[in-house]
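Run log, item B.
One chain of 231 residues. Sequence copied directly from the ordering sheet:
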Amino acid sequence: MNGNRALLITGLLLVLTLAVFETTSLDLLVQDRLYDPVRGWCVDRDAPLPRLIFYDGPKVIVGVIGAFLFLCVAVPASKSAKFPFSRREAVFLIVCLGLIPLTAGTLKKTTGVFGPWKIARYGGEQPYRKLFEAIPHVPGRERGRGFPAAHCSGAFALMGLYFVGKTRTARWSGLALGLAAGWIVGVYQLLKGAHYLSHTIVTMLLAWLIVQLLARAFGLGGETLKVRPSP
């Protein structure tokens, strides 16, 4: 797909997603089916095994991947052919893994949206508020930090693998890996009431938009890379 067209489509999908969830109650309809007033959420957020697999585990995996990418950058040029990524590709992926979570985390601090488990509808104390609704000023009330979904952003950053694949199969496999990893983490967050569906969809689209912009900045084109670039 043409790079400009892909960027435009991603941007339009992001705007459409925000419009749909801002003008409907779809988020609440989904969360209502995941919450029981007696039993609580589908997944206990304090349950150690799910937390290890879907919350702490992914952080460790992304950290290991990041360490390997730094090794790809640090290795002497004479030995770089033994690694799957060139230095330029490794730096690109490192920036993806750093910038996307940073962007999501920064937005969380400014949007003022509470996650489901915080609002009164699901046993919390805070009011439900959509992204573009005014933030009521109540002295002493905490500020919401639920939008977008930041934890899955590191997993979605792996979509950058699309732009370093040497074959069409490798590219699409890399994209599929990033999507799968992001949604595995994202669904866990939905099931325990940490985020709404819209939070994860927006994070996915935002991550893909940033990945495409970074790929362009690094001179990486998913449909044209068939020969390993020079380190």
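Observations after the first pass:
- Strands lie at 35-36, 40-41.
- The chain has seven helices and two strands.
Flagged for discussion on Thursday.
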